[in-house]
Task: inverse folding
């Protein structure tokens, strides 16, 4: 449904380093760079897709901060995302685990990025623990 989205960040270099490490376990990396922005997406977005589904752009962060959820391919990817995001300077905002208040197999982890945006990795798959 959404082609691309982005957020404003206070330090492009700090956020670029954070997202590069945090999104790698989910299969996303840098696909485009400009002096004031960086686009992340899958390495091979497909024919006709210019890439860059998630953008960070130098500026004053939005208030209130946004929540962004990235789809993961399995529970292990959620776990690795959480560890990588914390190692990259993120702050824990919800350890990996089931969130049955959303649905029975909603497996997710949450971190706050360097500007305080709530970043989530989520897996909805049938092999998530019940």
Result:
């Amino acid at each position: 449904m959404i082609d691309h989205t982005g957020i404003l960040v206070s330090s492009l270099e700090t956020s670029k380093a954070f997202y590069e490490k945090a999104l790698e376990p989910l299969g996303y990396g840098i696909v485009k760079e400009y002096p004031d922005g960086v686009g992340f997406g899958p390495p091979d977005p497909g024919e006709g897709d210019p890439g860059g589904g998630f953008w960070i752009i130098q500026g004053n962060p939005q208030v209130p901060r946004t929540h962004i959820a990235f789809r993961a391919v399995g529970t292990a990817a959620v776990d690795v995302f959480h560890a990588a995001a914390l190692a990259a300077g993120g702050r824990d905002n919800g350890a990996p685990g089931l969130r049955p208040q959303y649905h029975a197999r909603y497996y997710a982890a949450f971190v706050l990025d360097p500007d305080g945006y709530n970043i989530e990795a989520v897996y909805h798959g049938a092999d998530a623990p019940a």
Q: What stands out?
A: The first strand starts at residue 5 and ends at 9. Residues 5-123 form a domain with the 2,3-Dihydroxybiphenyl 1,2-Dioxygenase; domain 1 fold (CATH 3.10.180.10). Residues 75-87 form the longest helix (13 residues). The CA atoms of residues 63 and 117 lie 10 Å apart.
